[in-house]
Amino acid sequence: MRNLLTIRNLAALLFAATAGLIAITPAARQLVREADATMFGYRLTDAYAQLWGAEDWSAAPQLPEGHSTAWARQPVRIAHAMGSWGKPDENKPAALAAALAAGYHIIEVDLSYGPDGKLHCFHGPGGARQDDWPLEELLSAAEKQPFFIVLDLKSDFARSAADVMRRVRGTPLEERIIFQLYSPEDVRWFAQHAVGTHLPAPIVTLYRARRYRPHLLPNLSRIHARIVTMPIERVGELGDARDFATVLVHPLQSCADAKRLRVAAGYMLTDASCNMAPSRGSTVR
Question: Among 75, 157, 225, 270, which is least packed by CB within 10 angstroms?
């Protein structure tokens, strides 16, 4: 049986390489991907990604137990870039004030290092500027008006995460800092450093993932990913993650879209509409 599986995997890799050479245009790649989804359940596309060195989620350790998922009660409305993604005031105090006034209690923020060597609220491109809102001021605001903060660490993950933990560990803020884990290496960092803390359950995000369903879903289940974010265009492929996790999407225009997709909502702008009862199969575990 093992030899048969090895031969089958090798055949898939050879097929993937051949298809990759053929699919040199975006339109051709899309046709190959659609054919693969229908005939092979994305095994061809995943084998091609593996051939070219995409991330290996089988190397990710199991996430530690005991970290609360209570923050992810449905609908899970996360204010994307403080609810102003793509707007002039994204990641700024005015955006935070508008999101809180609109009833958001989960705020996503992009963080990069500035010239002063400290983390600032900044999406990019490039590094943060000296006049971008310092993380320290955001944390001070959270101490006065409790809300959860979802961290999108744009600079080196391990360094940024360590700096955040030095600031919040042992404080009430620790229970409201939600890490987003983009890679197996990020998962490994959390598994090593979150033990014994009061951090909430993290988000495992597939926004940058280059692997596909046959590799991702079994490994996400194995590592006990309880909250998973994915690009909205990959819900058709990866939506079965709702069998073991709360599924969020990015970006989301309304909670009506979340209900249609059978997900628990996701990353939204402050003015997005939301009037949705929980969908079956997407409850917090």
Answer: 157
Q: Are 82 and 99 in contact (CB under 8 A)?
A: yes
The neighbour count for residue 195, using CB atoms within 10 Å, is 12
Cα atoms in the Cβ-side hemisphere of radius 13 Å centred on 66? 7
Task: Give pTM, 2 decimals.
Answer: 0.87
DSSP state of 82: T
Given the structure tokens 């940058």, which residue do they identify?
A: 208
Which residues of the chain are in CATH 3.20.20.190 domains?
A: 57-268
Tokens of 252: 């989301």
Tokens 């996400």 belong to 220
In b/e form, how buried is each residue of 208-231, taking b as 16+ CB within 10 angstroms? ebbbbbbbbbebbeebebbbbbbb
CB atoms within 10 A of CB 232: 17
HSE, CB side, 13 Å, CA atoms: give it for residue 247: 27
Cα angle for residues 50, 53, 54 (degrees, 5° grid): 70
Q: What is the tens place of the pLDDT at every residue in 88-126?
A: 888 999 999 999 999 999 999 999 999 999 999 998 777
User: What does DSSP assign to residue 252?
Assistant: -
Phi and psi at 245, nearest 5°, equal -145, 165
CATH of 57-268, one of 1.10.1660.10, 3.40.50.150, 2.40.30.20, 3.20.20.190: 3.20.20.190
What's the DSSP call for residue 254? B
DSSP at 283 = -
Q: How far apart are the first and last CA of the chain?
A: 35
Alpha-carbon dihedral sign for residues 25, 26, 29, 35: negative
